[in-house]
Design a protein that fits this description.
By secondary structure, the protein is of the alpha+beta class. It folds into 2 domains: 34 residues; 59 residues, Nuclear Transport Factor 2, Chain: A (Roll), CATH 3.10.450. The termini are far apart. Strand 2 and strand 3 form a beta hairpin. The protein has 2 helices and 5 strands, in the order H-E-H-E-E-E-E.
Length: 96
């Protein structure tokens, strides 16, 4: 009987650990999403907007996001949805 009780206790501890791990993952995901937020184009630095316009002159439906220490533009170009990231000084980082 002692062995069975020990086994049950170990299983309960493992379940508790898994629940904690799951909560950590969920909260981390939520925190990551919260670090990104939509902003008005008027709050995007001129250097970023200038770099964007030079690189994507035919872009339409432009939406800006501030993500940690860079800016992300979501836009359409030639009917295709695209994203581009720029440092605060307007340096192009990447395109998706």
């Amino acid at each position: 009987m002692i062995r069975f009780d020990s086994w049950v206790e170990t299983r309960q501890e493992n379940c508790s650990t898994m629940k904690k791990l799951l909560w950590i993952i969920v909260l981390s995901f939520c925190f990551a999403r919260c670090s990104e937020h939509d902003i008005d184009a008027s709050k995007v630095p001129d250097a970023v907007k200038t770099s964007f316009t030079q690189k994507y002159s035919n872009a339409s439906d432009i939406e800006w996001k501030k993500v940690k220490d860079y800016y992300e533009a979501e836009f359409k170009m030639d009917g295709k949805k695209m994203e581009a990231e720029f440092n605060e000084d307007g340096t192009f980082m990447k395109e998706e």
